[in-house]
Design brief:
By secondary structure, the chain is mostly beta strands. 2% of the residues lie in helices and 34% in strands. It contains one helix and 56 strands. The strands form 14 sheets. The protein has a five-stranded mixed β-sheet, with no helix packed on it. A hairpin with an 8-residue loop joins strand 29 and strand 30. The longest helix has 17 residues, at 6-22. It is elongated and about 85 Å long. The two termini are 33 Å apart. Belongs to the glycosyl hydrolase 74 family.
Amino acid sequence: MRPAGPLLVRVARIVRTVLALALGCGSLSAKDLPPAPYHWANAKVGGGGFAPGIVFSQAERGLAWLRTDMGGAYRWDAVAGRWLPLQDGMAEGSYMGVESIAPDPVNPDIVYLAAGMGATSPAAILRSADRGRHWTIVPVPFRMGGNENGRGLGERLAIDPNRTATLFFGSRHDGLWRSDDSGAHWAKVAGFPAPGLGAPAARQAHGGVSFVVLDPASGAAGQGSRTLYAGVADPGAHHLFRSADGGATWQADDGARPALLPVKAAIDARGTLFVTYDDAIGPNGIADGAVWRRDGASGRWADISPPDRTSGGFMGVSVARSAPGTIAVSSIDRWNPGDTVWRSTDNGAHWTNLRDRSARDISATPFLRDEGPSTDLGGGDFGHWITGLAIDPFDAGHAAYTTGATLYATPGFGAASGLKWAPWTEGIEQTAVITLISPTGGANLISGFGDLAGFVHTDLARSPQPSFTNPYLSNTNNLDYAGQAPLIVVRSGSLYEDHPRDATLAWSGDGGMTWQPVRTPAIRLADDQPGQRYDLHGDAAIIVSADGATFIVCTPVPLVTRDHGRSWGLAQGLHRDARPVADKVDPGRFYSVDFAGNRLLASSDGARSFAPVAGKGLPADLGPGKVHWREQQYRLVASPFGAGDLWFQVGDALWHSDDGGQSFGQASGKLRVELFGLGKPVEGSRIAAIYAIGTLGTVRGVWRSLDGGREWTRINDADHQWGLRFRVIGGDPRIFGRVYIGTDGRGLMYGDPAAR
C-alpha cells in the first residue's frame, strides 16, 4: 500500500475536524448540521378533533379553508382531492390554535390567519400570497383564544371586499383593530364603543368582538365599504354595533334581543344581515339563543328563530350567494334530541330541520360510530358543537358543517328527502395523541388518543376500525404489551366525568382487537378511611409482564393479579404510588423507582417482592424523573432487545443500564431530552435506536441516536415541525428507522428514512 500523499492527509484532517465539531468538541452548532432525510406522514384517522370554522373562497370555485383549535389551518385542494395542512413548518405551538381565517374575496391566492392559542400565548396575524405555502408572520400586541371557550365565534377577521388591503380584527380583550396595508401594521379603532375588558383573570375566556362583517353593497371597488357590523360577546348594555362611515364612528344597533350575545353573522349581496345569538360564548354552556334578520334597506329587525328549537342555542349561519334568500343556521348544545342544521329558502320565514331527513356514510372514518347515538342510516350521529357552517358560494347544493369530531359535507343540500352527508376529512388529522406502543408482534402500532379512545393500526394509510370497547373510554392514558407474548395488551383510560363507569382498565389477548375489563377491589389507605376503588377515575396505570401472565395496577397501593383480575395481592417492598415497569424479555423481572428514597427497586420473582438495586451512576436526586400526570409518558422504559436493558430519563438527561439497574451510564450526550422512545437497532448492533424530542444547542426537534446516545442526528426539518407540540414518541422494534410521534393537535405521525 502506498503512503498517503499530502492531499489525502489534508482531507483526512478536515474530516477529523468536522467529526470532532459534530461530536461537540468544537463550535459547530446543531443548526449547522443537516437533518437526516426522513419521509413523514400521518397514520390516518381522518378529522377527529374540533374545527371551529370553515370558509369557502368567494374568488375561486372549489377552494375552501378550515381552521382548527389546536392543529393549524387547512386548504382544500380540489385537484389533489384532499385537505392540505398549512402550518406544519411552524415551530411556534401557539400559532396552531387558529382564532380566525379570512381568504381574500378577490384574489384566491391570498389568505390571512389570526393565530394564537390562548390569553397567555403569543399571537400573530399570518399572511400568505401563495395559498398558505409560505407565511409572513406579524406578531400583534393583542392576545387570542384559538383553543379557548368562544373559539366557535366569528369570523373575527374580515377583509373589505371593496378595498382588500383593509382588514378588521375583533380581539377578545382589546377591542377592534384595523390594518390598511394588508395586515403588515395594526392600529386599534379608537372610535369603537367596546374597547375590551383587558387581560382575563386566571383562565377565564372573554368573548370580545365576536365577528366583523362588511356590506359589499355599501361601497365601490377601490373605495372601500361604508357599512360594517361588529358583534361584542362581553357583558354590557349593547352588543351589536354598526358603522356607516367605514369604521370611523359606531352606533349601537341591537335589534330586539339586547340581552343575548351576538356570536356569528352573515350578510348577503342585498345587505341583509343574519345574526345568531346565545346566552354564552360556548362551545358548552349555551342554554338559550335566537336568530335575527336585519333588512339592509329599512334597518328593521325580525326574529326568524326556527320554531322547533328544544334546548340550547344557535351558532353557525351562512347565506347562499348563488341562491338569494337561501340561508342555513345550526344549533349548539341541543343535547336532546341532538344538534341539527336548519335550511330556509325565504330569508328565514320558514325552516326545514335537516336532522330527521339526513343520513351519513362514515365508512371512510368508522371511529365516528362511537361518537354518539344514531338513528341515521350508515351510522354516526349528526354531531355536536356545530359552530362552523358554510354554503358554497358557487353551488348552493354544496354545504358543509363542522362538529367536535369531524367535518361533514353534502352535494345535495337542497334535496327534499334522503339528504346524504359524508365526512369531508381526507388529509385532515386534528387529534391529540396521549400514548402509543409498537409491540414486538401483531400490529406495528397501537395508539391511545384523547376523546377518540384509541386504535389498532393494521394499515397506517386507512382509518382504523374502532376496537377500544368493553369498556369504551374517551381517553386512553397508558398502554403496555407483553414483550414475549405481544398479542397480550393492557390499557387504562378515563371517561368524561358526567358518564357512569364500571371499569377503566382492560386487557386483550388478540393484539387489541377485543377486550375484557379489569376491575380492582376496594382498598383502604388507612384504618380510619373507607374502602375505595381507586381504579375508576383513570389515574391507575396498568402494566403486564413479559409473558403476559402478571398485571400490576398502579393504584395508590399497587395491586398484582396473576389471573386477569379474579384475585389480587400486594407486592412486598413497593412504596405507595409506585409505578413499576416490566422487563420485556424476562417475565420474572420488574422495576420501580422509589423517588422519596432516591433509589431503584427491582423484582426477580414475578412482582412478589421488590428490593433496592445499586443504580450506580444515576444522579443522587431522581426526583426530576417522576411524572405528575396520568397522561405523561413514563420515563423508565424497558427495552425489548435484552433482559435487564433499562433506560431512564431524569430531568433532561437519559441514562442506560444493561444489567438490570445495577449500573447506569449517561446516554444523551449534549441533547436535552424531553421525551424518548426505543426502536430496532441498526444492523450489527445490540443497542436500541433512541428517538427523542429534545434540544441540541439552540435547535429543538426530533432526534435519533444509533450508538447509545453519544451522537444525535436530527430527523425532522423546517417543513415538519407541527408547532413542536409533542406528547409521546416511540420507535418500532421490527422496522429499522421507523418512529412514531403523537402530536398535540396534528395527529399521529410516523417517519421512515427517505431514500437518498
